[in-house]
Design goal:
By secondary structure, the protein is α/β, with parallel strands linked by helices. The protein is 37% helix and 11% strand. It has two domains: 18-121 and 262-540, Peptidase S8/S53 domain (Rossmann fold, 3-Layer(aba) Sandwich), CATH 3.40.50.200; 124-255, no CATH class. The chain has helices at residues 36-39, 46-51, 124-136, 149-194, 201-206, 212-228, 234-255, 263-266, 289-299, 331-343, 361-373, 459-476, 482-491, 524-540, and strands at 6-7, 18-19, 62-68, 107-109, 112-113, 116-117, 315-321, 348-351, 377-381, 409-415, 437-440, 444-448, 452-456, 500-502, 509-511. The protein has a seven-stranded parallel beta sheet with strand order 4-7-3-8-9-10-11, sandwiched between helices. It has a two-stranded parallel ribbon with strand order 1-2. A hairpin with a 6-residue loop joins strand 14 (500-502) and strand 15. The longest helix has 46 residues, at 149-194. The radius of gyration is 24 Å and the shape is globular.
């Protein structure tokens, strides 16, 4: 599931995907590229690296596959860095390169079909509830065979969680819907009567009426101002509320809808997890916000003097769509996305998504193993639940069913811009064993569809920050293998001796070094410096 976190001033309301961490702090839009010494901010020192260590150095082009919700390939800051399949003739309806995918000019969409695209899907929890329910929903008094007991116990856990979360989300949807429609009606009514588009707290206080309905509208707005501040922008407030309505609407109508079947759109044989050659070539899809934002972090054009600068300066972005905008991605699509990216030359695969179940994990394991054998780096977001991934499950994972670990995998947690106790994003998953490293993931400014830009937060943003630095290393240091690139990233991660941070979720203070295997923060400068030192050693040998 894509879990992008957005900052909101709806702090008096129940949160859905909003946070309050340092929301009013003014920071540079490109803070994640900046340097702690030069700029007094905890970025990855990318600009410093280009201006010093890499100045006038030769580099090669690196292909990074972004497995995500789709990308706006026509965006002004991305169009020149989008990968083009050199063996495919555009729009001729022929599979020119004979790879099984017709007109895959810029990548492929595994959640589309002949007549459209999947936008929303069910959660894996729902699908697991349905799967197990077919076996056990008619069981009475809990009497099952010993052979079935393990699955039945799992069914009871899934059923309890599904029922609880479905009910909670329905309540949240009703709450946000009522608040949104109540506020919108109050705002629209008073704007007309007061003949103004700008409703300030002073103007609303001065408005006189004896009409009970108008008194209610006035009181409602004044309560909003009291909660959000006298300078609250009601239009922005309504926009945030509408996002909440849309968020919970998708969860209720799709995520926890046991009757919804997205595969009708795709038309594949879903019972075969190893089936290939389904989907379509619409790599943008119905809502490419998340994937476009991720792509910009990695490689937005650094030389066009518009928009933003991505981390990597010699990169091509391959688009692979397999993640719905709500609900969970499916293992079959994840596996095929990895295989497609590897077969078409990607050297890095960015995966800014995650979920709690993996019913076809064997298929994903096979794809991860394939990428490992081909020397492709997999970079994955640790998740936004404030969980310890050493304890809680977060798929996909580098750990195979047989217990062995893929050596080409980097798992990334999210940091913020300060060095104090709030240095770790309060939503970020962590794990001394299972999370490799941290990278900037709070208020990251990047590309969004239709030539726009905005801030987003999540490990979804920390992941491409890391992929960008990995691409930078591969570009300027082609002699290093994928495992050596991974080792460079982790060994050079910047340490913060004795830094106490708030542990996500539990909020207790812990040493930052205990939240990941490397105990550090991605640093382009330190990684390049280490690579240069190791290059000299290789030459000496």
């Amino acid at each position: 599931m894509i879990r992008v976190l957005c900052y909101s001033f709806l702090l008096t309301l129940p949160t859905h995907f909003s946070l309050a961490q340092s929301k009013n702090t003014t920071i540079p839009l490109n803070w994640f590229l900046l340097d702690p010494q030069l700029d007094s901010i905890q970025g990855m020192s990318v600009e410093k690296t280009y201006n010093t260590l890499l100045k006038d150095q030769p580099a090669r082009e690196i292909i990074v596959a972004v497995v995500d919700s789709g990308i706006d390939i026509d965006h002004e800051d991305l169009k020149d860095v989008i990968w083009t399949n050199p063996k495919e003739i555009p729009n001729n309806g022929i599979d020119d390169d004979k790879n099984g995918y017709i007109d895959d000019v810029h990548g492929w969409n595994f959640i589309g079909g002949k007549n459209g695209n999947v936008k929303d899907d069910t959660d894996d929890l729902t699908r697991e509830y349905v799967r197990l329910g077919k076996k056990f929903e008619y069981v009475k008094n809990g009497k099952v065979s010993k052979k079935q007991q393990t699955d039945y116990d799992q069914y009871l856990k899934v059923k309890e969680k599904f029922t609880r979360l479905k009910e909670n989300n329905e309540k949240q949807y009703k709450l946000y819907s009522n608040l949104y429609h109540g506020l919108k009606q109050s705002v629209d009514t008073l704007r007309v009567l007061m003949k103004t588009d700008s409703l300030s707290v002073e103007a609303v206080q001065k408005f006189e009426t004896n009409d009970p309905n108008l008194l209610f509208a006035k009181g409602f707005l004044l309560q909003i101002f009291r909660n959000a501040g006298d300078d609250a922008n009601l239009s922005e407030y309504l926009k945030e509320l509408k996002q909440g309505v849309d968020y919970f609407s998708a969860i209720v109508n799709y995520g926890y809808n046991t009757e919804f079947d997205s595969r009708k759109i795709i038309g594949d044989n879903y019972s075969n997890p190893y089936e290939k050659n389904y989907g379509n070539n619409d790599v943008k899809g119905p809502d490419a916000m998340h994937g476009t934002h991720v792509a910009g972090i990695i490689g937005a054009n650094r030389n066009n003097s518009i928009g933003i600068k991505g981390v990597a300066d010699h990169v091509k972005i391959m688009v692979v769509r397999c993640v719905p905008n709500s609900g969970d991605e499916r293992d079959k699509d994840v596996a095929n996305s990895i295989i497609y990216a590897v077969d078409n030359g990607a050297q890095i695969i960015n995966m800014s998504f995650g979920k709690k179940f993996s019913p076809e994990k064997e298929a994903v394991d096979k794809a991860v193993k394939y990428a490992e054998q081909k020397g492709v780096l997999l970079v994955h977001a640790a998740g936004n639940d404030g969980d310890n991934n050493d304890v809680e499950k977060n798929f996909p994972t580098p750990y195979y069913i047989n217990g062995k670990e893929a050596k080409n995998w980097v798992e990334v947690g999210a940091s913020a811009w300060g060095a104090g106790k709030d240095f770790v994003a309060d939503f970020s998953n962590y794990g001394k064993k299972s999370v490799s490293v941290f990278a900037p993931g709070v208020q990251i400014y990047s590309t969004t569809p239709d030539n726009t830009y905005k801030n987003e937060s999540g490990t979804s943003m920390a992941c491409p920050s890391t992929s960008g630095v990995a691409a930078l290393l591969m570009s300027y240091f082609p002699e290093f293998s994928v495992t050596e690139i991974k080792e460079l990233l982790l060994k050079s991660a910047r340490k913060f001796d004795g830094l106490k941070v708030q542990e996500p979720g539990d909020k207790k203070e812990v040493d930052f070094s205990q939240l990941s295997a490397s105990g550090g923060l991605i640093s382009a400068y330190e990684a390049v410096k280490l690579a240069q030192e190791l290059r000299k050693e290789k030459v000496v040998r």
